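Q: Predict the bound structure with adenosine-5'-diphosphate.
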Amino acid sequence: METTLIILKPDCLKKGVAGKVLDRFETAGLAVVGCKMAELSSEKLREHYAHLAEKPFYPEIEQFMRSRPVIIMALRGEGAVAKVRDLIGPTDYRKAAKGTVRGDFATSIMENIVHASDSVENAAAELKRFFNPGEVFAL
Ligand code: ADP
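A: Predicted complex:
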């Protein structure tokens, strides 16, 4: 059993496809074990996207991620980290197959609907970053 972190990004909520995206994860056997809506601070985003902080497009990512509140979820299931990454498809929506979340709903590399942890180690760090103790449940 693994727990992974996803963020339904501002474009997901603007397009009104949060339910459709969540349906894919639930249909794949993943359970919601944590959920909150939040406005992400610049500080939190700088930490979360530290690997991109030096990129010329970083300010745009921050602006986009702060453009409206997001939904942050913890999802649990067998092999949850890899399973969710497979379901969302690659970062670049043009390379994402139809049937993946990004292949079906994303409209740019930046506006790609959903974040998901890319390794078990990063999932642990990201769950700690976005959830306080007691906010992820042992269902
Ligand atoms: P992923 O979200 O698939 O783990 P990264 O960690 O590389 O991918 O990038 C984080 C986010 O930054 C992406 O999901 C996307 O929103 C944005 N991003 C990444 N690369 C670019 C780019 N070349 N141009 C604009 N935005 C980008």
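A: The beta strands are 2-8, 31-38, 70-77, 114-116.
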